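Usage

Read records sequentially. Each one opens with the input sequence:
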Amino acid sequence: MSDAAQPTAAEVRAAAEAVKTALDRHLAAVERRSGEDDPAVSEAFNQLAAAAEAYDELLYDRYDEVTPFEIPGAEDTLPPYAGPEEPNAISVLIRRDYTVAEPQRLLAQAQRVQAAEYDDGGDDDDAAGTVPGALGILFGEFEPDEIASRHKEFGLEEGDSTLWVTAAEEPPEAGEWLAAPFEHIDPQQVVCRFDVSAVFDDEISDDGDDDIVFVDEDEDVDTDEDTDGEDTDDDEELEPLDAEK
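and closes with the structure output:
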């Protein structure tokens, strides 16, 4: 950054004073809060976060220094649950990312499935010869949970994954959301969220709990996560998949 674009020392000092003021306001709001979800506390928190972020940026631009504060972003938290108290319907939204680590293994498994289903050499003989075709065959043949638990057999490497459970007063009409299944998700309707990511590897607690966020309760909930302990090694011979369905 050029000297002309750098903030002045006075601007950095003013930003620091703004942080002090925001701290005082936040403490005062906390001392006067009327409940767990007091909007005054939330507003004071947001003002403090904005002031701290502005100060951090100016401090870095002027002096090439940073603060020890880490302000959680909006993507790291969910708003308080505001859905129905007794929902009549829920939606489960799942995203799982994979890397195609071994394309040849993926193709071989798809060819095994295809050979079992098209013994007469049907029109789809070439579908398993490409990665997109092989993915279509395997995800059409096996449930997503089975692929997740046996991903190494399919030449896949796990990435991040997330599961959201949302609540609703009434179930949607048949076919209502098929055109855009992942749009119009209201964060305040999310009952719970379950994330798995490599970024959490250094943050695992001593009891091994995963990053589960319940947005409407403070109660501890015991959860057990299935592990992929039965995954086959990469150098293990492929087994016929149709016999294991």
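Summary fields computed downstream for this record:
- Strands lie at 89-100, 156-168, 190-196, 211-214.
- The first strand starts at residue 89 and ends at 100.
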